[in-house]
Design a protein that fits this description.
This protein has one domain: Rossmann fold (3-Layer(aba) Sandwich), CATH 3.40.50.300. Helix content is 41%, strand content 12%. It has eight helices and five strands. Strands 2-3-1-4-5 form a five-stranded parallel sheet, with helices on both faces. The longest helix has 20 residues. It is globular. The termini are far apart.
Length: 202
């Protein structure tokens, strides 16, 4: 960290913004292999949250790499930095009182744990898209598995780069067994049962 940097306190903080938004801010962290349905499920969930009147923002892996993280590649070190930046941005959005959805492979358990550690209690909800590699590879929506198998791209998660599944995610979703609508309903039920989607914020 640079020297001579002091945190500047503001009169309006998370508590005030949370009261104004009338919702419980949190990060819904989608993780899973490429092709597991992270972006599709997160996008459908955000539509549902919007229709319910909640304020949210979706951070998607490919979209973020067009701007904020355009200087990063796919080496292990760059993947770590990619997730570190996303975690910090997510923390800012939570501080703003929003429900943040992140759709990133985020292959390393330590990086997801680090993201969780910078959030407040109960503000990090890990949603594991638990889909077999064979299913993801058969889908191959961007043709990346085919390129990885052909040696055209390297450091591809699930082929020549490791994916470490969560030990104890808040929620598991299998898009090979359930439709997008069913997956969204399962997530909504989980959030409702645990008080995330409430208008009675203290």
């Amino acid at each position: 960290m640079a020297e001579n940097v002091v945190w500047q306190s503001h009169k309006i903080g998370k508590a005030e913004r949370t009261r104004r938004s009338g919702q419980k801010p949190c990060v819904l962290w989608f993780t899973g292999l490429s092709g597991s349905g992270k972006s599709t499920t997160a996008d459908a969930l955000e539509v549902r949250l919007h229709d319910m009147g909640f304020l949210s923002y979706l951070l998607d892996g490919d979209n973020v790499r067009h701007g904020l993280n355009r200087d990063l590649g796919f080496s292990d070190a760059d993947r770590v930095e990619n997730i570190r930046r996303i975690a910090e941005v997510s923390k800012l959005f939570v501080d703003a009182g929003l429900i943040v959805l992140t759709a990133f492979i985020s292959p390393f358990r330590a990086d997801r744990d680090a993201a969780r550690s910078i959030m407040g209690p109960g503000e990090f909800v890990e949603i594991y898209l638990d889909v077999p590699l064979s299913v993801c590879e058969a889908r191959d929506p961007k043709g990346l598995y085919r390129k990885a198998r052909a040696g055209e791209i390297s450091n591809f998660t699930g082929i020549d780069s490791t994916y470490e599944p969560p030990d104890a995610p808040e929620l598991r979703v299998d898009t090979s067994q359930s439709s997008p609508a069913e997956c969204v309903e399962k997530i909504i039920c989980h959030l409702l049962a645990r008080g995330y989607l409430t208008r009675t914020v203290a």
